[in-house]
Structure formats: C-alpha cells, structure tokens
Amino acid sequence: MRQSSSRRRPPTMSWAVVAAAVTAVAAACSSSPPAAGPSASAVATTPSGSTSASSVPTSVPPTSATPSTTGSPTTTATQPATPSSCAPTIVSGMDSDERAGQLLMVGLDSGASRTSLDALVARRHLGGVILLGGWTGGTDRVRVTTRHLAALASAEDTAGLGLLVAADQEGGAVQQLRGEGFSRMPSARVQDQGSPSGLTADATRWANQLRTAGINVNLAPVADTVPTSIGRANGPIGQYDRQFSSDPERVSRMVGAFIAGMRAGGVASTVKHFPGIGRITGNTDVTARGITDRTTTVDDPYLEPFRTGIQDGVELVMVGSAIYSRIDPGTNAVFSRPIVTDLLRDRLSYDGVVITDDVGAARAVAAVPVGERATRFIQAGGDITLTARPSTVPAMHDAMTRKMKQDPVFAKEVQTAATRVVDLKLRMGLAHCR
Hints:
Layout: H1 15-29, H2 87-92, H3 96-102, E1 104-109, H4 118-124, E2 128-132, H5 138-150, H6 155-158, E3 164-167, E4 169-171, E5 174-175, H7 188-191, H8 196-212, E6 217-218, H9 248-264, E7 270-274, E8 292-293, H10 304-311, E9 316-319, E10 323-324, H11 337-347, E11 353-356, H12 370-380, E12 385-387, H13 393-406, H14 408-428
Parallel strand pairs: 1-2, 1-12, 2-3, 3-6, 7-9, 8-10, 9-11
Antiparallel strand pairs: 4-5
Helix pairs in contact: 1-8, 3-13, 3-14, 8-9, 9-10, 12-13, 13-14
C-alpha cells in the first residue's frame, strides 16, 4: 500500500481520552443543533451522491483472525495502522469467495426484516451492511438490528471478520437514523455557521449516538464544494444544502472538524464524493444526464477538502459516479483508474479504503452490466463496492470470483483491496491477529 510522509495519521493515544477531551469541549462551547432540514425517509429519492440506498464457500477458515460473534458491534474506535499489521496474513488464509465478499457492502432497507440479509451474508461472505430507507424508530430499533448483524460474523460465514455497519448520517435532508436517542442534525450549511471546534464537539456527540446504536461507519462528511454560480441548481448537493460552503478552504476546515468528532466518538468517517460533485447539475442516483464536470482538474482547489481528510487519516473515501472530462473523458469516476489510482492514491497519497457511491440502483451506471460495476471498480484501484439492491450481490460476487480465476492480475488486485479492508477492520476492532 502507498504511504506518504505528507499523510498525517492520528497520534497513538487512548481513544477514551480523546473522547473525554472533546466531550469537555462540547460542554464548554457547543450549542444544541438547530432543527434539521427536510425529512428524507425515502431512499432512492433522497439527495444523491449520498448512498441513497447503497451493498463467497469456505474451504479453510482463516487462523489469523478471531470471529467477532459477541453480538455487540459497539467497540469500534479506529486505531492508527501499524507497520506490522497482520492483514496480509489474514487475507492469505482466505479463499477467493471470502476475499470477494469483503469487497461488498449491501443495503438493508428500514422496511425489510432484520433477517433478510442473513443468507446473503453467509453465502457470499459479505463484509458490510448499510442501513437505508429512513430508520425513524430511534436507538432501540437500530440497536436490535445491528446486534443481529454483528452476530452473523463467524469463521465460516465472514472469514472470522466483523461487519462494517454503516449509515448515512450527514445531517439535514440526509440523516437516515432518527427518533429517540438521535439528535436532529442540522444541514452542513447550518453546521458551517458555527466554529470548527463547535462542530467537533457536536460530531462527537453524534458519533456517540451512532456507536451506542451499533453503527461503526458514518458515510459522512460531504467534502464537495458547490460554487455560488451553481448553488441549488446542483442536484445532488446544493439543492439540499449538503455542502459546508462554497469556499473550499472553509469546507476543508469543517471536514477536518467533523472527522475529528467522529473519531473521538469511536466511529469511522468517509469523505465523499471524490473528486467532487459540486459542479454538476444532475443527480447521479436518478439520472445519467447533467453529470459531466467540465471544470475539475487534477490540481483543482476543490480537491483540498479531500486532501485535508486524507492528511487527517480519514478511514474511507467514497468515489462518485460523475464524469470528469478534463481527467478521464467519458468514464464514470468509479470506473476510472486515472481518478481512483493516479489521482486519489498516487497524487493525493491515499492508501486507505476506497468505497463506491451506490452502484446498485444508481441511474448513472445503469448502462454498465451489474457484475462489471464491481470488477471495473477494483481494476480502477477501488476496494468496497456498495449496492443498495441486495439482488445485485450475486452477480457482483460471481463476476469478481470468476475474473480472479481467469486473470492473475485481477486476483492480485482483489488481494490488495481485501488487505486494505482487513487492515481497517483490525484498526476498528473487527478483526484480531493471533
């Protein structure tokens, strides 16, 4: 994996101490968040760019990981990566089905049974689940579901690895978890009206609520910058006040503050939607029109919020499905090696986990065969393919395992991607070295 001396990982220290310190800041300088923006209880019709819906037989169980089968997914504080990570050893003990499964995250809709994904997780050895569709029943309802999901982890079914359990909890129109136990989070535009230290304090409180509910990954913050010349004409972000600011320097400060709060509360963060969807008009979830950015370049100032997140050690980067004519004409970003590898990994020195925006239901990628959406993302340099539709998982998983058998280069790419995912899980306490 690539590393750069410019990338600043969080210092090695007790996460309990960090949480306590930032909680003290909350008490001293943070006010209660204003009322949130419009409710977004539906999935496919909520603002895009967010995962508005998002989502292998074992011959020899790995001997280098301990299954997370306690049923409690709440011990999720990430730790700095260590040079002696045992992730490669764990991955070497996995078969191709298990490796492919770790590279898929599937959506569990609020209206579905909590057991509806059990067979899929077991048969395809899935690595993650995202809660979608507007969970309005409060902490208790979410916690019952996440405990059930955590209990699915086993040596046989998940290669001894715990699940990434994610939610879209930005604030405003994009807050999938609501009700008793969850604060109403204001939109990013409203969050930006306060100070960075105030946002860190608020984000720590929100992260504690997520962790209590069993969520260990937040698919936030939004690092996109929407120029004032476009404003609300920007379908995925500006229309819903999901951007912090139209000034990328201000966005950078608030992105860093949000990440710091999530980390203090023990929840992994995700900066999105690389390399930025603030200059398009179409919503990639619902259309393939108006999704070409004709301005962004590889040294664009709008990349700075993503650079900040990377330097601050953000756990995941989400790549969007827009097209960037000045970087890789005609190719959706999620399938673009010039964007995922050359720009994100090489130029910005990001060596962590890269995840797609939803490519299961999104109209922007509808013309690409379902299985290829996963294989092309891996070939571009990505890791976790997120799909809102459980029905797409078999095709994606089969495409990866089949291509691994046919193409040694692709098999190596999968191994590398799975190693990044397992390394993250080690830092989150979802896997353990022996």
